[in-house]
Write a structure and sequence with these properties.
The structure is a single chain. The protein has about 200 residues and is of the alpha+beta class. It has one domain: Glutaredoxin. The protein contains six helices and eight strands. Helix 3 links the parallel strand 4 and strand 5. The protein is globular, with a radius of gyration of 18 Å.
């Protein structure tokens, strides 16, 4: 191995090591979160065919996001990241994931069920929901304050974090690894009983 290759290898190792340290630091530094606004009420149909409402997730810490099954852009990354969170917080009984389809014309219950299976979404822990386009658009723009849900291709890539009392406490880019670590730190904070 040449001296240059050794130097480059050491440089990459150092960067990776520092990245790991900064991720751990970011995860351990949350001591407070803002109270942004109350999460909206909703009543949608889940991929299981059951009705799921805001009442079903109240009292839990949950992330809410918007997606559609035919999305070839950020949705696979967002759902993969949600799958990782589902696994990481599998032992936390009061952690939930709530995804809202912005393309209900195509995303039937059956199609959502196949998509949920693709990401190993556990019924009762991870909801993938559908309703009319108008209801979803209202929920996205006025409820969760996450853009315009009327154009599926333009949905937000953020996860909204909601606490046990139904208050939105933050927004985190679902495709950015740094923001995902910040989200983990915020989830840890809320699940740790330091916030309602």
């Amino acid at each position: 191995m040449t001296r240059t290759v050794q130097y480059i290898s050491l440089l990459f190792f150092g960067v990776a090591l520092l990245s790991g340290c900064s991720s751990d630091e970011a995860r351990n530094t949350v001591t407070e979160l803002p109270e942004i606004t109350e999460a909206p009420d909703f009543t949608f149909t889940n991929f299981t065919g059951e009705t799921v409402s805001e009442e079903d997730v109240r009292g839990t810490v949950y992330i809410a996001y918007f997606f559609f099954t035919s999305c070839g852009g950020p949705c696979p990354t967002m759902n993969s990241n949600a799958n990782v969170l589902q696994a990481e917080y599998a032992d936390q009984e009061d952690f939930r994931i709530v995804g809202f389809s912005v393309d209900p014309e195509r995303d039937s219950v059956e199609r959502l069920a196949k998509y949920a299976d693709r990401y190993s979404a556990k019924p009762g822990r991870w909801h993938m929901l559908r309703n009319s386009r108008e209801v979803v658009a209202e929920l996205a723009s006025k409820g969760f304050l996450m853009g315009d849900g009327t154009n599926p291709a333009l949905h937000s890539t953020r996860f909204a974090l909601v606490d046990r009392s139904g208050m939105i406490r933050g927004y985190y880019d679902g495709v950015d690894p740094v923001k995902m670590n910040e989200l983990r730190a915020a989830i840890d904070f809320l699940l740790g009983g330091q916030a309602s």
